[in-house]
UniProtKB/TrEMBL annotation:
Family: Belongs to the cation transport ATPase (P-type) (TC 3.A.3) family. Type IB subfamily.
Protein name as catalogued: Cation-translocating P-type ATPase
Source organism (scientific name): Ornithinimicrobium pratense
Membrane topology (UniProt): Multi-pass membrane protein
Positions of transmembrane segments: 12-31, 61-82, 235-252, 258-285, 584-603
SUPFAM superfamilies reported in the protein's UniProt record: Calcium ATPase, transduction domain A (SSF81653), Calcium ATPase, transmembrane domain M (SSF81665), HAD-like (SSF56784)
Gene Ontology MF terms: ATP binding; ATP hydrolysis activity; ATPase-coupled monoatomic cation transmembrane transporter activity; metal ion binding
Family annotation (PANTHER family): CADMIUM/ZINC-TRANSPORTING ATPASE HMA2-RELATED, CADMIUM_ZINC-TRANSPORTING ATPASE HMA4-RELATED
Residues in P-type ATPase A domain copies: 120-219
Taxonomic placement: Bacteria, Bacillati, Actinomycetota, Actinomycetes, Micrococcales
Region named Disordered: 632-658
Length: 658
């Protein structure tokens, strides 16, 4: 019974009822002559199919909106008044079928949102007083321990506090490969456990989860209007009244009421009105499936014009984790009381001195010493940080300095002059993108250690794909020094480098690009890059899955910390705008051809409505092509997954000690 009631209230109930009445009218007309019952049934079909249309038209008029429903209503009522019952029934019946098909296909374009809602978990298993209690997901309290078993959905956002397992995070990041989770890792509501067992401490519930924020963003974005759509809305607001006036003039001048009513039907701008929003909904939906959140139609349209991309360096092009890259020995002889100095001895001295330092560059030196099994026990007897230069420490009675050339000169170290051996090694390492630090012991430079940040493996491929997507200029904005920045740019394939920039300098660089006529996208971490992100035409946040602020504020939020998602987003925007233009051409061409057919004869009211509804469906089906995943040609040629990269790892220098 429930299924019958659902169907009676469904989208196909009205066209089905009208269709049965039309068939009954045709059958009755063949059995009885003359045919009053046949005409009566045909009028009934027109009323059943047309009543919802008239109600919509009346509701629209109540708020001073003249739309497509009014044109169809006038045409159908007029056809009945002049005795064209078949035309009235056919027009309303075809219009009802068209609406049902539109609703069904439009629902498919919103499939990404439906899928996101479907993965929202309903229940959670909470550990309370040592017992497992099943409660509704929204009833879990912050800080409570939630158990996630193999095959279950994660019901909350939280941090793993026990156990190990793998989670399918496709609903959040768009990445289909399960991600291993251990203690301290972040998990998101709506992801699915594919193996293992996790104990999670809750940090977000219900509307405060990442999944809820994504659903909210996609809802808003799919309803937001692009500039082209706003123009189309204004166009329709005067186009529809103009058609009504034209039909009245045509009817009065020719005396052919059927011709005037037919003009009303075929001039319906239905395909034109729907051409833009259906593409936007499909494009934003495709992006959501792939972990690309676009703020709305306007930003999708702007993204299609991006021809310059500005990138922050640290944390965007690089991993943000410096590592030891070089150990160079300068002086092997420290006297009869010391063994010959080798690379391990240079590293050991540097590590022992840095053991008392809080500088970020101390960590990679200490880690490298630990990996090599070098003993770095205890702290130096005395540690003296020298701001902007390095550190001086006392080790077993020896004065050890680790830092830049300025520190060596301050310590009056032998060979610290610009032409010395240490200076030459430092210059060579800096030119290759390293951050060099000289190690001196008791006034003699014994070696140089260098660290570098790791350039992301997919950075060169990202730049190549951006160029293929139509981006003319890729610019690196960095606070690092010019030679090092240029060395990094050469490794990655960056077109232009702007080095030594403070946040204000990055803003000025983005503004200058815009003044040169570029449509600029800025990619950064949203902290020191905030002014530049706000100034750019499109601000892009990467790795936004764990940041509610990034999801809500960025014009484009890339849920995965994956550089290749950036060219994918630009390509998607261009495909969506191209799809919008195709739909506009289809809609306008249909109206022009049909109007010519009416004016020169041959197109009836029913035929016009059939062609009109067909054009609407063609527009929707064309937009639905955006829902298909478009793989990169290079990735297909190599058999690689779209998110993979074949680039070899390289290194770049991190900023000097300060």
């Amino acid at each position: 019974m429930n299924k019958v009631q659902t169907w009676l209230h469904g989208r196909w109930a009205v066209p089905a009822a009208a269709g049965l009445l039309i068939l009954a009218s045709v059958a009755t007309s063949r059995l009885w002559q003359p045919q009053p019952w046949g005409d009566l049934l045909m009028v009934a079909a027109a009323v059943v199919a047309g009543a919802p249309v008239v109600r919509k038209a009346w509701s629209a008029l109540a708020v001073k909106v003249i739309g497509i429903d009014l044109l169809v209503s006038i045409a159908a009522i007029g056809a009945i008044m002049i005795g064209e019952y078949w035309e009235a029934a056919a027009v309303t019946f075809l219009f009802a079928i068209g609406h049902a098909l539109e609703d069904g296909t439009l629902a498919r374009t919103r499939s990404a949102l439906a899928e996101l809602v479907a993965v929202a978990p309903d229940v959670a298993i909470v550990l309370r007083d040592g017992e497992q209690v099943e409660v509704a997901a929204h009833e879990v309290g912050l800080g409570e321990a939630v158990l996630v078993k193999n095959g279950a959905k994660v019901p909350v956002d939280g941090l793993v506090i026990g156990g190990t397992g793998a989670l399918d995070e496709a609903s959040i990041t768009g990445e289909s490969i399960p991600v291993e989770k251990t203690t301290g890792d972040q998990v998101f509501a709506g992801t699915i456990a594919t193996s293992g067992f996790l104990q999670v401490r809750t940090t977000g519930v219900g509307a405060d989860t990442t999944l809820a924020r994504i659903i909210h963003r996609v809802e808003e974005a799919q309803d937001a209007k692009a500039r082209t759509q706003t123009f189309m809305d204004r166009f329709s607001s005067w186009y529809t009244p103009a058609i009504i006036v034209l039909a009245i003039v045509l009817g009065l001048s020719t005396g052919d009421i059927v011709l005037a009513l037919t003009l009303l039907v075929i001039a319906c701008p239905g395909a034109l009105v729907i051409s833009i929003p259906v593409s936007i909904v499909a494009g934003i939906g495709r992006g959501a499936k792939d972990g690309i959140l676009v703020k709305g139609g306007e930003f999708l349209e702007t993204s299609a014009r991006i021809d310059a991309v500005a990138l922050d360096k640290t944390g965007t092009l690089t991993e943000g984790r410096p590592q030891l890259t070089d150990v160079v020995v300068l002086d092997t002889d420290l006297g009869p009381d010391h063994p010959p100095v080798d690379e391990e001895e240079v590293l050991r001295y540097a590590a022992r001195a840095e053991a008392g330092s809080e500088h970020p560059l101390a960590r990679p030196i200490l880690e490298a010493a630990a990996e090599k099994g070098l003993a770095v026990l205890g702290l130096p007897q005395h540690t003296e940080p020298v701001p902007g230069k390095g550190i001086v420490a006392t080790l077993d009675g020896h004065r050890v300095a680790v830092g830049n050339l300025a520190l060596l000169q301050a310590e009056q170290v032998e060979g610290s002059e610009d032409t010395g051996q240490a200076a030459q090694v430092v210059a060579d390492l800096a030119a290759r993108g390293r951050t060099p630090m000289v190690v001196a012991c008791d006034g003699r430079a014994i070696g140089v250690v260098a660290v570098a940040d790791t350039v992301r493996q997919d950075a060169p491929e990202m730049v190549r794909r951006l160029h293929r997507a139509g981006v003319k200029k890729v610019v690196m904005l960095t606070g690092d020094i010019e030679p090092v920045a240029r060395a990094v740019a050469q490794q990655v394939g960056i077109d232009e480098v702007r080095a030594g920039l403070l946040p204000e300098g990055k803003l000025e660089a983005v503004d200058e690009l815009r003044q040169q006529g570029y449509t600029v996208a800025m990619v950064g971490d949203g902290v020191n890059d905030a002014p530049a992100l706000a100034t750019a035409d499109i601000g892009v946040a990467m790795g936004a899955a764990g940041s509610g602020v990034a999801i809500e504020t960025a014009d484009i939020a890339l849920m995965m910390d994956n550089l290749l998602k950036l060219p994918e987003a630009v390509s998607l925007a261009k495909r969506t705008v191209a799809n919008m233009r195709q739909n506009i051409v289809i809609a306008l061409a249909t109206v022009v051809v049909l109007m010519a057919g009416v004016l020169f004869g041959g197109v009836t009211m029913a035929v016009g409505m059939l062609a009109h509804e067909t054009s609407v469906l063609v527009v929707i089906v064309n937009a639905m092509r955006l829902l298909r995943r478009k793989e990169d040609p290079a990735a297909r040629a190599t058999g690689a997954r779209p998110s993979a990269s074949s680039s070899a790892p390289s290194r770049e220098r991190v900023p000097q000690r300060a």
